[in-house]
Amino acid sequence: xxxxxxxxxxxVNAKGxxxxxxxxxxxxxxxAVETLKQVxxxxxxxxxxxxxxxxxxxxxxxxxxxxxIWLADKPMEHWLDASVGSSRCCSVCGESECxxxxxxxxxxxxxxxRLIIQAALVASADLLNDAEDPSAExxxxx
Length: 142
Description:
4 helices; about 140 residues; globular; 3-stranded antiparallel β-sheet; single chain; alpha+beta
């Protein structure tokens, strides 16, 4: 099985708390990975989820690193042709402008399962292209 690494990172304070935005994404990430396990297994691809914590000091320096997802070593927005923005968050984040993602004119604070799955499918297609027989690329152009 080929591995599809999925890394999700979010702020976790000294008390082990995160904000509502990241908590919402957490549920969506777990659901997406379970769906992807079923969908990608016949293709010989296994999603591997890693959850990384951003501490408060790192978050204060770079709040855009929280609630960020990487698939196959590239940011999710790469696979979705999306853009990154920010908006005021809440509770654990204090007054920080936290990461958002915009896809086809819609801005998301918590990242929905469907976007994670969509990005993972595009990344998986890229993995499959990399796994093709290199001799197939030596075909004579028409």
